[in-house]
From TrEMBL, chains A, B, C:
Pfam families: Glyco_hydro_42 (PF02449), Glyco_hydro_42C (PF08533), Glyco_hydro_42M (PF08532)
Domain Beta-galactosidase C-terminal: 617-672
Reactions listed under catalytic activity: Hydrolysis of terminal non-reducing beta-D-galactose residues in beta-D-galactosides
Native organism: Micromonospora rifamycinica
Domain spans labelled Beta-galactosidase trimerisation: 406-607
Record's keyword terms, sorted: Glycosidase, Hydrolase
Protein name according to UniProt: Beta-galactosidase
Example of a GO biological process term: galactose metabolic process
EC supergroup of this enzyme: hydrolase
Lineage start: Bacteria, Bacillati, Actinomycetota, Actinomycetes, Micromonosporales
Occurrences of domain Glycoside hydrolase family 42 N-terminal (ranges): 12-395
Length: 675, 675, 675
């Protein structure tokens, strides 16, 4: 087993930046902080292979031995996210090129094109060399391939590869012409040679081409990963392999599809909001990761990964100890916030809490990125908090037996988010991840647990399915939703769901073409709102971003628009379908209204909050397995709070007297008495 | 005659995007909406010539026949605004290049350089082929060349062509050196080979070079148009030829100069303001178009276009049925607004109201652009409104006999607007179109009709001439203005008029060099205002953007500056010159003050509003010919309004009882009793 | 002597833009304005050498003779800041290239790469030709090399030169790898050939590389200057040589290091703030210039420049007569402001007040830049004010004997400012020049004079040393500060000082690594503030931009943070060290608080304001030499002010009766009675 049964604590460790004396101090400090796992070698290529074919493994041998002696396991990284200077100089054709034709140069990280043959060969080379040397080193518990796959490129290698990928996908040009709607603007192709990547052009680009270019990159990066994984797996089939996901609108990666190819879903998470938003982002990221892990387990090839029992496993591979990177500056996390973020991940299924990074460097581009051992050294609040966190994680190992309990599913699809960002949409405020976050926030504030699912995933455990701006819908997705509702499921659909097919072509005849029958309505017109505009809703709420002319075809209004051109027309509707209800939101409600609406939908569906009496600002997450359950209570407020709960707080070992007293910013993890 | 005597209704029609079954439905729906004219083939090159020299005309034959059978006339387009993929691949040197040297690629539209010989040859080729096949097709009533000429480029072909154009213009380098003031910053040329396009450079560019580059592109695009026109005209001299103008600061086209070369001025108009601004922009665009049509008729070569009687003819070739494209989103036009915009154009002389586009496509870059038949289909508000508009247009054919009545002229000159946008101006808020719009808005709100004229146009019908930031003035323009005033005309000049010569070199000795004697003053210093700054004016108004030290030399103050460094000095002046008055505005007055000032100037000049008792928000436009007149009344408010008028409302056939009752947002067109 | 003992008045004169008749008018107008010195030929290369090797000196001969006859001295410029068109066409490889690889083109100015051999050869060529012809012309008093050195480039010539410079600097790659911390992100170099300029890259660049690239450009531009200087000096060792400094964040020039190579520090100064900020910027720029002049005199090679006695000499070489160029527009200077700005420079040591430019051109990129003779001509406020200024300067010649009196020193270091602008800093609001300006403003408003010093300069005349965000500190700087304090000096250090070493690597173990012992504290954590965030300070002030967790190690708190995570912790501290005090500011105080703090620090150090009873808004500067002193009083308010002072006002010749009455905006220069 790649972990030792405990929850992991640790982070990226870069011994190549430090002296051997510091290595020894590091192992001692890791022991104090109960570090169980460190990632080594992520950006060490230029130190491992300082010149082509010349290797220097001495320092790594020594470090791995030291760590092993100190009881610290190693996730050994392949260093392919940052080729050495010599590689870039020898292979300028493998440097990435922007859509404008600018060739990017060495001097940062990720300066390669993953479609360039020379890069792929070099990456396989160093991976195989590491595999040969370390696949059976006792310290190595896990392989971490690359770092945060997420680059794209427009070089000639890419163009050729994109064309091959399209030929695979479409077979003939008629299919591509239809999918990309090339009759518009005279873009009809009559030879594959005419097809290129979506380079900088005069005006709006082709949506089908833009969407397929993202899909192509997801597949191409995945292929780069799989090549390395297979080499590593061959060297020692017992060692699991993963790569750490990076989240962000710019990343051309469909993480759900990748989940079947990793032995462990590993996620880097850096919230960007300072206030409560950081906690909401943390909860959503963890729910996404758990969803990918489950999805991957179902999709994985049983030949290489035997079906597993128990909760789906994933790992928070990187997070920031003491900073929130937000626009324009790093916000310093308040005391206790690191632990609260970490335990929010653990509550949602992470096998631990890992950080970038162990020790803050004196130089380099990220010299001011935070670390468990900051510039100030171990005599610091931050290191002391990491020691406390290590101790806390140590006490919580048993929770890994529990699965997170949720009866609500949020559907998410990477391609929908990509398509909503295309030029030529009716509004430039359309933002799939923000729609997902708004729905998730509404549930989170209302106290409901939820899973994030991928269209096609089994839905039998859920009573309510939410589609937040799930823009694309092919027949399979429509069938999946319809089947769920017809089986008695409750459904909540937000505007912009089901508008287009998988090629981003609009379903004609009234929006949302994919779901209008199910919803009992037809949307006749869109009324996108200005950035600073609000519409009033009957019952007191407001809507932003979007509004619509909704014509009822069986649905009943829940609330309506007040004033303006839509005055008196329905804004939110519900439609009884068999035993279930299909709700529709034609605008983005304000947070309070959204919360009331999901509460009403959940109540109708028979779903309860995790901890109905938890006060506002106290997050409750329950993990359970037959015969046991654990309740995580996270107090995000700056005041003490009390919550009714019966059991033992694992962090203190103290039984509750029916009520848990949470200090300001504090956390409790209750092993619950027979619920 | 290209139209059938009725006002046109219709739009761009793209049968290449639809099945043959849809074609038949389209013709039926066109019949319901009384569509008279559709533009076909605009972006069909890749479907008409799928490979070099291989043509596919079958579908177009069938569509033209269907339309002809359905009684719909066709404006047949040459598809040269979007070359097929095969063209770009075969001629990469014909792809456009930005000032920074970025080669733009296929994937949108307009991805060609109009100075590239290969592009010009291919464009002539497809135009000649279409002419040979369709010049005598009974459905074809009009040729529409290309679409919205407006591209520029910095490729080597462009550089060579620019140099040839400069040699034609200047003859010798001394003249160019003087015009461009190359003594500044060591830019003196001693060989034509040194002269290039204004590529990206280290710091501020040369104003003369920038201005001539715009002029070069206007002439180059015009030559591309004329080539095609001549081919089409040769194939059938009876068919008129035009191209649709696109408006916008970025367009390097002097539309007034082009007007002599088109058989019909055709304008695409898309307002960008949401509130009343859309109506003001519509009125201005229509006045501009009418001015171009008149100007062109006077300038046209009598050998190819015989002098015409009656009102100058122009056509609104494209507009948006149900959207206003504004920053960040599409605003949905309120019920009735499509008709009101359309009839505002017709009131000002358009031969009808055409739209982009007939039917909204499922895919392509503009999949969410609105259409007469929207995604929802014909069972929709938008299609119903287009049916009503078709009926209304049908009833209004007689108004085409009337000419718009105006006694006020606004002068506009494309090159002045270009020069005001150059780097190195005293303020980055200088904006010629915005100055024109501000003056036009003042007149529009005060209820006056006006024409837009080009310097040099006859002025005998006008009592008041307005120069809004007419920055450039050569001797001919100065003589034109002076002659008008000396003949008793009244003149209103705004700041930034007459500052520079046609090469953008400042007239020395006191601003505005071209007009200071006529205005009876000398401006000693400019005082540009900060973006959020206002100056107070005596009498209660305010000024923005600009202020000046005005020294009187015969003029009298109308109002003065209050406070600040200009306290007590004149802000607005008037100067009696013979029988006329020359007014000067040294700042941009607020809208109310501007309206009062133009009202005072108009009253002094003896000009009356179109409909003196029309309430605010009700626009009145009169068309007249000897013996008849028609009064358009457009209620832009959201309340019913009443206006005194005697005659018959053509839209309802009901005689007024001395007063017209306009519903909120409604329109009436009164055939007036003997005025 | 390059001047005639008087204070200089004049500016850039471009006779190549004007006719010979205008030259004669110019000399007459210069006589009226008592112009003593004009710079000729700055951008005249294309007129002096219209084709390679073909020269036209006739016009320059005539102009120099005319000026000499008119009693006007000439600073003759080498025109190398703007090569002619023929040069760029012949040497496209000498055009500059951006980090993105965009080759910039001719058409502005400064379109060369100063590392390109062809450019350097051509520059030497025209300089040598000018030297041969004019080095002994009686009109020529001074050589002005080039104009505002400040370009950079990424072309292959640059890359090669950068590599050579790095080899010189580091000797071996181990040193470079250590300095640049290349262990981070796999950037370890094993061959010099791999090292390039910091081109556009995928993500954050390397801070060491970015910093050295700035240093390289400073040295490269200096070498270009020195080449020309040596040629000119050889032609006539008696003529002094200089180049005019341009100030700005973007300029890769360490002006302090250059000061040893110029015979006269010459500065162009254009404030960018409109309100009082223009006066504060003027005072700071002049203090900077004086500091460079002193620093340069100490560093200069005694072989070429013998040690001088008396006040350090510098010259305001360019300023704007009537405009303040601020964001988006030119603000027109109010009456009297030109003189006040000029005399603020003279008060601080400038040998006069020079302007860009003498006469405003009709054309060219800077056609609206102001001038002593504006577009309007000499019958103008601006020319009249320049006549008055000429007369005033004439009366003030005696003040050049006095040295500015200051007991406070502000330390500034160009590289620190560069490093604070690197990507990856904890906040994007970190701005070295703004920190310097904030500290200087606090002193200026409190009425204290100050000098700006370069780390290493002698400090024996100062009682208080201020380090405003002096980010970098090597051992020598630390020793310099420590030695000063140990000798009894008082010290005030602001946040971000002493954080990193000269390679921008963080000093570990607690911030600020360089000074924590001296300050008696250890900063454990940074808390950068959001752009709109403030922290409250005990005592009523506020802090912006930054805050810190300060742990006292001997220092005592002066004021503390109120509220938030730092509530109750120290914000400002002081530490007694021997006879001195070391103050620390962990945030940027608001202006009032900053002023109170520097006043307290100055008082503790025993420093008095220049003129303790001067009212707010009246600036006082004193120049003195043994036995005499002159007090400049500048009334920046719009009301009359009175100041106690005894002596004779040199501008009026009137003795004060113990009190000077300053009109609104007025200036007095008092030759003081025995102080």
């Amino acid at each position: 087993m790649w972990n030792d049964g405990r929850l992991c604590h640790g982070g990226d460790y870069n011994p190549e930046q430090w002296s051997a004396a510091t290595w020894r101090e590091d192992v001692e400090l890791m022991r104090r902080a109960r570090v169980t796992l460190v990632t080594v070698g992520v950006f060490a290529w230029s130190r491992l292979e300082p010149a082509p074919g010349r290797y220097d493994f001495g320092w790594l041998d020594e470090v791995l031995d030291l760590l092993h002696d100190g009881g610290v396991r190693v996730a050994l990284a392949t260093p392919t996210a940052s080729p050495p200077p010599w590689f870039s100089l020898a292979h300028p054709d493998a440097l990435p090129v922007t859509a404008e034709g600018v060739r990017l140069h060495h001097g940062s990280r990720d300066t390669y094109c993953a479609a360039a043959p020379a890069y792929r060969a070099a990456a396989r080379g160093i991976a195989a060399t590491l595999a040969a040397r370390y696949a059976h080193h006792p310290a190595v518990a896990l392989w971490r391939v690359h770092n945060e796959y997420g680059t794209s490129c427009h070089c000639p290698h890419t163009e050729a590869a994109f064309r091959r990928w399209l030929i695979d996908r479409y077979g003939d040009l008629d299919a591509l012409n239809a999918a990309w709607a090339t009759s518009f603007w005279s873009q009809h192709y009559t030879d594959w040679a005419y097809v290129s990547t979506p380079r900088a052009t005069q005006y709006l680009g082709n949506p089908g081409q833009l969407l397929d270019f993202r899909r192509f990159w997801s597949d191409t990066l995945l292929a780069a990963y799989v090549e390395q994984r297979d080499l590593l797996r061959t060297a020692n089939p017992a060692l699991p392999v993963t790569t750490n996901y990076v989240l962000g609108d710019w990343v051309p990666v469909d993480h759900a599809r990748w989940a079947a190819e990793v032995d462990l879903v590993a996620v880097d998470h850096y919230p960007s909001a300072v206030d409560g938003g950081a906690e909401e982002q943390t909860a959503l990221a963890a729910d996404l990761a758990r969803g990918w892990a489950r999805h991957g387990r179902r999709q994985a090839d049983p030949a290489t990964r035997p079906p597993a029992d128990g909760p789906a496993t994933w790992l928070l591979m990187e997070s920031a100890a003491s900073q929130i990177h937000t626009t324009g500056r790093s916000h310093t996390k308040e005391p206790g916030r690191m632990a609260r973020h970490s335990l929010s991940h653990v509550a949602r299924g992470s096998r631990g809490a890992m950080f970038f990074q162990w020790r803050a460097p004196a130089g380099g581009a990220e010299r001011f990125h935070c670390a468990l051992v900051p510039h100030t050294g171990p005599d610091s609040r931050v290191f002391r908090e990491s020691v406390h966190l290590g101790a806390a994680l140590d006490r919580l190992a048993e929770v890994t037996a529990g699965e997170v309990v949720a009866e609500i599913a949020l559907a998410r699809d990477a391609a929908s988010d990509w398509a909503l960002r295309h030029p030529g949409m009716p509004s430039d405020q359309l933002d799939g991840p923000a729609e997902l976050a708004a729905a998730h926030r509404a549930l989170w504030r209302a106290g409901y647990g939820c899973d994030v699912v991928v269209p096609g995933d089994p839905l039998d455990r859920y009573r309510l399915l939410v589609l937040p701006a799930l823009y694309l819908a092919g027949d399979d997705t429509v069938d999946w939703v319809r089947g769920y509702v017809e089986a008695g499921g409750h459904l909540l659909v937000s505007y912009l769901s089901g508008i287009a097919d998988p090629y981003a072509r609009v379903h004609l005849g009234g929006y949302p073409g994919a779901y209008r029958d199910l919803l009992g309505l037809r949307v006749e017109e869109f009324h996108p709102l200005a950035a600073d505009e609000q519409v009033l809703l009957s019952g007191g709420g407001t809507g932003r971003i979007w509004s619509e002319t909704v014509r009822l075809r069986g649905a009943e209004p829940v609330c309506g628009y007040v004033g303006g051109v839509l005055d008196g027309l329905p804004a939110v509707t519900r439609h009884r379908v068999g035993a279930g209800t299909a709700w529709y939101l034609s605008t983005r409600p304000d947070d309070g209204t959204y919360r009331r609406l999901v509460t009403e939908a959940a109540r109708t569906a028979g779903v309860q909050p995790v901890c109905p009496d938890a006060p506002p600002g106290v997050e409750a997450v329950r993990r359970a397995h037959p015969g046991a359950s654990w309740l995580f209570l996270l107090n995000h407020t700056d005041r003490p709070q009390r919550v009714r709960a019966a059991g033992v707080d694992l962090l203190t070992g103290v039984p509750t007297a029916g009520e848990v007293a949470l200090p300001a910013g504090g956390v409790a993890v209750i092993r619950e008495e027979s619920r």
